[in-house]
Amino acid sequence: MQDINDDQDLQNMATHVLNQIASYTYPSAIVHQMIDKFVEILTESPSWHVRVKALPVIQVFYFKHLFTLTKAEMIRVMDVVSGMLMDMQIEVRVYRVRDAFCSSKFEPCCNGRVIFLG
Questions:
Q1: Is residue 46 part of a domain?
Q2: Contact at 8 Å (CB) between 17 and 10?
Q3: Domain containing 16: what range?
Q4: 3 falls within a domain
Q5: What is the number of domains present in the chain?
Q6: Average pLDDT, rounded, for the chain
Q7: Which end of the chain is more exposed for a tag (fewer CB within 10 A), N or C?
Q8: Residue 96: what pLDDT?
Q9: Is residue 54 a part of any domain in this protein?
């Protein structure tokens, strides 16, 4: 629904719902199924808009449920997310790089370059 350009309210509500879904605490049995679905979305979705919108959702979900994930699931998610750097659509790659640097000592400049803050 976030991919529908006609209705801005629908896009905003869908974004809000996805954020709520990601921040909710789930039982471990459901976490494994949701990880599978997130990986499926990131790897098989033909729409780059969907892939970009799924990245922040899986980020919140991953760290919220980090202690219930198996090592194989952790590696799988990290491989898929790092694989977004090789995405055919530049917006997906830019979002992934920007997202990766936001939580480190790197700060993006306004012209797109990245500087190290120490």
A1: yes
A2: no
A3: 8-116
A4: no
A5: 1
A6: 78
A7: C
A8: 62
A9: yes
